[in-house]
Write a structure and sequence with these properties.
heterotrimer; A alpha+beta (462); B alpha/beta (322); C alpha/beta (327); A: alpha+beta; OB fold (Dihydrolipoamide Acetyltransferase, E2P); Dihydrolipoamide Transferase; Chloramphenicol Acetyltransferase; 3 domains; seven-stranded mixed beta sheet; four-stranded antiparallel beta sheet; 30% helix; 21% strand; rod-shaped; B: 322 residues; alpha/beta; Rossmann fold; two-stranded antiparallel sheet; 8 strands; 44% helix; 11% strand
Chain lengths: 462, 322, 327
């Protein structure tokens, strides 16, 4: 008589259990009370004993299956007895694998943008827009699946860039290079398509800077009048000189220069300086110079006539967002022009500090590229030389440059009377492509007015 | 002979046209001048000519990959045929079809097909269309022993017989389906017996005897036109050359020299010529003149083809849809 | 306007066409006395006689050949291949003969033949009576392919097919025969090569064929409540294909899901994706997804057929959500 082995009721609340391990195999002889299998419930693991002696003829529920209690899990027969038919049909086949719920293996919702490490994942529309706008994808953070760059990511990047300033057109390569070298490319004039800044432009900006990175000039303001060149000598141009030569020529021949001059009565300004210079030196530790006044006056005038604080880019005129006035400093091998940043917003003392520091470091060849590239307008002074006035070539990509000659006593006519006054002749060169005579004249006039009326002009400073 | 002399001479002329046309192709093919494939009808001329002599321009035929014979017999002109073989713009199919797909719709030639057995259903369709329009026309469907094993052929025969459409199935049993001899590709010897399976008459005729073919097909045409339905006319014939140009040694890979020689002795053109002379239907001189004329016209056709331009590359995209 | 079922629209179209043109005759299996397996030729034999509505032996090659041959010699046959699954039986006649005869014979003849057939799974038809292999035929130049999705369209497109002097493969989705829609009386045509935008939207483009159009519309309606605007494009004919409408719709949304009941590889959607990748690549904002049947034959058991095989709304939604992850 076959005996059913059931999963016994294991506790008041237990409703099912999982057979963990069969301790006997089909065909084994079992004795009543002997442990047959281990079962696990939520509470505990138990061993279940055999209810009878005989042969464990058939195991109906294999290991790993959870069944309700009282399920027939095996059949014990007597020696020689055959298994009743009904038990052949019972039992559950051990499942091959747990079937996943109809998980669509159809690839339609799968998207594996497999790519190697360091590879940029971007959707075509995003790539396209980035390319159009000259933006390197490496600068954009992707918010899509798998950190892929979406169209909206490129758009928001561009919007942020636009907020930062006028749209700068720069190729990805140039941008990378500029970032690497710490050059603010906003001031680099682009020679690429639509005035894009290209790699060559960045390299030239660097070269321009490097040109002055030669032996420090002795601290005397006047560079030695003795030339290092000899008659008959053939001097091959250094690569830096070549670059500068090219840029100078380019500037002169690209931008039609036009020149304006006026004479400034320096009496009041000189008097003001006399008044304050010593006190300020004591108080602030800095000796203000006439140049500082010029810098400030120019900055304020540029504010009034922003067209002179601009650059040409392709077919656009870019009025630069900041007024950074550069001061040309003569070096051994050329000129370097560090710029005082946001000069319109600085007080005279601050300007003086900047000017002093920049000129000192310029002479020691210790300027940063940024300091030389940020300039938006240049003042070039030959006041220490015996030069009445002179014309200057625009410092690319700027649109205006002020020349300052020597301050000297001259006879002038005022109210029908001849007087001796300390005068200076200042000159303005502008890019006539974008700056017309009237504006240039007005600028120069305004500048003169400020210099001749220093108290009211500079009243807001200090 | 009950047949009028003009008709007999016409038959001779047509067979000669086919023979000289095909010989020209042999020559040109050997010179590498024919792009593509060529399957030549030499030896089987009596079948196409005998059958098509019963037809007018308004009747239709469908042809096979070995279609030059059918097309010439049905009235296809030598010049546009030759031009088509060379892929020229002036060919019947503007160079789009080539040897295996020659068609001349205005002459009722519905086309040579490259798919063995595919002509049957289309021929039956044409016959159905004729019947529906009550036109006094017939369709001849040419097919070979190889095609007789294609399912489409059986479907066609069943359908044709069921609807008693005006069609004649002319089977050119040349004893080989490419390289496989008939006894190796079908259990029967006479394909005509299959006609019984479709409840239509099946007749066997000597395919090397143009008159015999002519007479038999004549009966079948009559039958078809009277609404009694299709007939299967099996013509026992033989192709003297290989399956295609390029089949080495006239098919000696699978045929014997003796067999070829035997059949060549029964050349349909030579035997017909002899018959005409012997039965005093025509003198040798007349026959020679006809032959000369054919030779000349084939040569003219060849020159025409050579001088014709190739189609413009842009024509590749034309004639897809009406 | 009155409403007809898809089936009724077919019958009406055939009826009107046969009245207008005595050269039209029908040939197919069980189309006569039985009225067609799906009743799409119901009553026509009774009206026009056996001569014009012919019950055919089971000989697909003969059916096609009869159509081709009679069309060449002046008739206007409309033959029927009962299920598109049977098309491979007469594939030669369709793709080598009908499709190519005009071209390879240099334009000498016209073949004004309409081949009607049915497709679609959902009735336990299993592997041989439920396929949707219409995309396969796109590969053969020379066949026009029509895939109507509404009763209005099936009638108008059938008239156009009959007027067209080329072989036209006209595919009727057997699962749509009972779908109702507005159908005008009388004769009107719907042009080939003109897709229709069934629903406008700006977020995602769904291109769907046959019955899938309706599934796409259902999904569009549901997702509208979530604020997702789906544009559903119904191409109506696969050849000629209205690429412009599809591309222009795609350019608006930048996200594309194609829903087609064919198997996965070589699906109609594959061709659309290729067209987009070639002609509108700069607009692709997200991966292009195809919702198709899996790449297996049609299974029999309803659980397998209906819940797994046939593209359903859930899977379409899932695909839509997936592409929206990229917006």
């Amino acid at each position: 008589m076959a005996v059913e082995v059931v999963l016994p009721a294991l506790g008041l609340t237990v409703e099912k259990g999982t057979i963990l391990k069969w301790l006997k195999r089909e065909g084994d002889i079992v004795t009543k009370g002997e442990s047959l299998f281990e079962v696990e419930t939520e509470k505990v693991t138990t061993e279940v004993e055999s209810p009878a002696s005989g042969i464990l003829k058939k195991i109906l529920i294999p290991e790993g299956i959870e069944v309700p209690i009282l399920t027939v899990v095996a059949v014990i027969t007597k020696q020689g007895e055959s298994l009743p038919d009904k038990y052949d049909m019972m039992g559950i086949q051990k499942p091959q694998k747990k079937e996943e719920p109809v998980q669509i293996h159809i690839q339609e919702a799968s998207f594996s943008m497999s790519s190697g490490p360091g590879e940029i994942k971007a959707l075509p529309a995003a790539r396209w827009l980035a390319k159009e706008e000259g933006v390197s994808l490496s600068l954009i953070k992707g918010s899509g699946p798998g950190r892929s760059i979406l169209l909206k990511d490129v758009k928001s990047f561009l919007a942020k860039e636009a907020q930062r300033g006028p749209k700068i057109l720069i190729t990805p390569t140039a941008r990378k290079l500029a970032d690497k070298k710490g050059i603010p490319f906003t001031s680099i004039q682009g020679t690429g398509i639509s005035g894009r800044v290209v790699k060559a432009d960045v390299l030239e900006a660097e070269a321009r800077f490097k040109l002055a990175e030669t032996r420090p000039v002795p601290t005397s303001v006047k560079p030695s009048g003795l030339s290092k060149y000899k008659l008959g000598q053939i001097v091959p141009m250094s690569s830096i000189r070549k670059v500068i030569a090219k840029r100078m020529a380019q500037s002169k021949f690209t931008a039609p220069h036009v020149y304006f001059f006026n004479d400034v009565n320096m009496e009041k300004l000189l008097a003001l300086r006399e008044d304050v210079v010593t006190d300020l030196e004591e108080k602030e530790g800095i000796r203000i110079s006439i140049n500082d006044f010029f810098i400030k006056a120019v900055a304020l005038s540029l504010k009034e006539y922003p067209i002179l604080n601009s650059m040409v880019s392709g077919e656009e005129i870019r009025i630069l967002p900041e007024i950074n006035v550069g001061l040309a400093v003569a070096m051994e091998n050329g000129l370097i022009v560090p710029a005082i940043p946001k000069a319109d917003q600085l007080g005279l003392v601050e300007i003086a500090r900047y000017r002093s520091d920049l000129v000192e470091r310029a002479r020691e060849a210790r300027l940063t590229i940024e300091e030389t590239e940020r300039g938006t307008f240049t003042i070039s002074s030959l006041a220490q030389f015996d030069i009445t006035f002179f014309t200057a070539i625009l410092n690319p990509p700027q649109s205006g440059i002020l020349t300052v000659g020597k301050v000297e006593e001259r006879p002038v006519v005022r109210g029908g009377q001849v007087m001796i006054q300390r005068m200076v002749r200042q000159g303005l060169s502008v890019d006539h492509r974008i700056i017309d005579g009237a504006v240039a004249a007005q600028f120069l006039q305004s500048l003169k007015k400020k210099l001749e009326n220093p108290y009211s002009s500079f009243f807001s400073i200090c | 002979m009950k047949v009028a002399k003009e008709l007999l001479l016409e038959m001779l002329k047509k067979m000669l046209e086919i023979r000289y046309f095909e010989e020209k192709v042999v020559d040109q093919y050997a010179r590498g001048a024919v792009p593509g494939l060529a399957h030549l009808y030499i030896g089987e001329e009596a079948v196409a000519v005998g059958a098509c002599m019963n037809l007018t321009d308004e009747d239709y035929i469908t042809s096979t990959h070995r279609g030059h014979g059918h097309c010439i017999a049905k009235g296809g002109e030598l010049k546009p045929m030759m031009a088509e073989l060379f892929g020229k713009k002036t060919g019947y199919c503007k160079g789009k079809g080539g040897s295996m797909h020659i068609a001349a719709f205005d002459k009722g030639i519905l086309g040579a097909m490259g798919i063995v057995g595919s002509g049957g259903p289309i021929a039956v369709g044409a016959a159905l269309g004729i019947k529906k329009q009550n036109l006094d026309r017939v369709v001849i469907c040419f097919f070979g022993d190889g095609a007789s094993n294609e399912g489409a052929t059986h479907e066609a025969m069943n359908f044709a017989s069921l609807h008693k459409v005006p069609i004649i199935f002319v089977c050119e049993n040349n004893l080989y389906g490419i390289s496989v001899a008939q006894h190796r590709h079908q259990a029967i010897k006479d394909i005509a017996v299959r006609a019984a399976g479709y409840n239509m008459p099946g007749v066997i005729v000597d395919g090397m005897d143009v008159l015999a073919v002519y007479e038999e097909v004549k009966e079948a045409v009559k039958r078809a036109k009277s609404g009694k339905g299709p007939t299967l006319v099996e013509c026992k014939t033989y192709r003297f050359r290989g399956h295609h140009e390029g089949d080495p040694n006239m098919g000696l890979r699978y045929r014997t020299k003796e067999e070829i020689a035997d059949w060549r002795r029964r050349c349909p053109i030579e035997t017909f010529k002899q018959k005409l002379i012997k039965q005093m239907v025509a003198k040798k001189k007349e026959i020679d003149e006809i032959e000369e004329d054919v030779k000349r016209r084939v040569e003219e056709a060849f020159v025409y083809a050579m001088e014709s331009p190739f189609p413009d590359p842009e024509e590749t995209l034309e004639d897809l849809f009406a | 306007m009155r409403e007809l079922t898809f089936r009724e629209a077919v019958v009406e179209a055939l009826d009107i066409a046969m009245q207008r043109d005595p050269k039209i005759f029908l040939l197919g299996e069980d189309i006569g006395y039985y009225g067609g397996l799906f009743q799409a030729t119901q009553g026509l034999m009774q009206k026009y006689g056996e001569d014009r509505v012919m019950d055919s032996p089971i000989s697909e090659s003969a059916i096609l050949g009869a159509g081709i041959g009679s069309a060449i010699v002046g008739m206007h046959p409309i033959v029927e291949i009962m299920n598109v699954d049977f098309m491979p039986v007469c594939m030669d006649q369709l793709v080598n003969q009908a499709a190519k005869m005009r071209y390879m014979f240099g334009g000498q003849m016209k073949i004004p033949l309409v081949i009607r057939t049915t497709c679609g799974a959902g009735r336990g038809g299993a592997a041989h009576h439920a396929q949707a292999i219409h995309a396969v035929f796109m590969h053969f130049p020379g066949i026009k392919i029509v895939v109507p999705a509404t009763p209005y369209d099936v009638k108008g497109l059938l008239f156009t097919a009959i007027e067209d002097e080329n072989p036209v493969l006209f595919i009727e989705d057997k699962m749509m025969y009972n779908v109702k829609g507005e159908v005008p009386e009388g004769y009107y045509t719907v042009p080939f090569g003109q897709a229709v935008i069934r629903q406008k939207g700006k977020d995602v483009t769904i291109v769907a064929t046959l019955r899938m159009v309706h599934k796409a519309l259902t999904v569009a309606e549901e997702m509208e409540k979530e604020g997702i605007a789906i544009e559903v494009v119904d191409p109506r004919t696969l050849c000629p294909l209205d690429k412009d409408t599809i591309i222009n719709s795609f350019k608006k949304t930048g996200k594309l899901v194609i829903v087609d009941e064919g198997n996965r590889v070589g699906n109609f959607g594959s061709e659309i994706a290729s067209i987009i990748a070639e002609e509108a690549v700069e607009y692709i904002q997200a991966p292009i997804l195809k919702v198709t049947a899996p790449h297996v034959p049609v299974p029999y058991s309803p659980v397998l057929e209906k819940e797994f095989y046939i593209p359903n709304e859930e899977r379409i939604k899932k695909a839509v959500y997936r592409v929206l992850e990229f917006s």
